[in-house]
Automatic annotation (TrEMBL):
GO terms for cellular component: cytoplasm. InterPro entries: Metallo-B-lactamas, RibonucZ/Hydroxyglut_hydro. GO terms for biological process: N-acylethanolamine metabolic process; N-acylphosphatidylethanolamine metabolic process. It comes from Staphylotrichum longicolle. This is Metallo-beta-lactamase domain-containing protein. GO terms for molecular function: N-acylphosphatidylethanolamine-specific phospholipase D activity. Pfam families: Lactamase_B_2.
Length: 251
């Protein structure tokens, strides 16, 4: 969110708005002339509760949660401010809690293989349907060797374990992020382009592609359980029968 948007939000709701930011990000909002008493800095696993006089007993609980991404605004402030995700709980008397996870921008796993991401398996007949005899394929590019050498970010599993499975997940889906964006401005052939092509998985440590977003969905919701449970995996508003591979869920 840019400075103009933040300033406009403050100007429109001066009496009630609060800004919650990770550690050492308050300074930026102060530079936009937002008063310090409207800004709350939070560390990972910090939480605050908001209430409203018109809704007794109703609570919005905000958790600052971990995320995997570097931070900088200039060359001299690299990684001097915390990066985070956010987890919200809406609590009402006599109602079940509703939990939302906002990942913001972050990565799940570095994938060094130039053949990553893998192509859709041949067992998939079309984008939305499967047949009873469709067989799941094994992702040869996600071997145990790669997983051990480049382990996935543990934050998502930790968040689910500590705070519970969210009902709604807002996850980023990247196609290369900053690197691909900069490369798009250079109208040169590959052999002399200062931004050479690379595997989309190389930026996976900071920006998750669709294949990793599906993995995070699974980790945080336990949607994929053992087959004995008769579980299904739910992605958006579509339900896929058990037995599909990770690549099929990415379609």
């Amino acid at each position: 969110m840019d400075a103009a948007s933040l300033t406009a939000i403050y100007q429109s709701s001066k009496d009630s708005v609060r800004f919650f930011v990770p550690l050492n990000n308050k300074r930026y909002l102060l530079s936009f002339d937002i008063p310090p008493d409207r800004i709350v800095e939070m560390d990972w696993w910090d939480s605050v509760q908001l209430t409203h006089p018109s809704s007794p007993g109703t609570i919005l609980k905000i958790h600052c949660t971990p995320a995997q991404h570097n931070s900088f605004r200039a060359a001299n402030d690299t990684n001097t401010a915390l990066w985070s995700s956010w987890y919200l709980e809406h609590l009402r008397p006599s109602h079940p809690a509703f939990r939302v996870f906002f990942a913001g921008d972050g990565g799940y796993q570095f994938h060094p293989s130039p053949s990553w991401p893998p192509p859709p398996p041949s067992s998939v007949q079309n984008q939305y349907t499967t047949t009873d005899n469709a067989t799941a394929t094994t992702n040869s590019h996600n071997s145990d060797d790669e997983a051990s050498e480049y382990p996935p970010c543990p934050a998502f599993r930790q968040i689910r374990t500590r705070l519970g499975a969210p009902h709604l997940l807002l996850l980023p889906v990247s196609v290369g992020a900053t690197y691909a964006y900069l490369r798009s401005f250079v109208p040169l052939p590959d052999w002399c382009n200062p931004f050479p092509r690379h595997s989309e998985g190389v930026t996976g440590a900071n920006h998750m592609g669709p294949w990793d977003a599906v993995r995070v969905l699974r980790v945080m919701t336990d949607a994929r359980r053992d087959e004995e449970d008769g579980a299904v995996a739910i992605v958006g508003r579509r339900t896929y029968e058990k037995g599909l591979s990770e690549e099929e869920l990415c379609l």
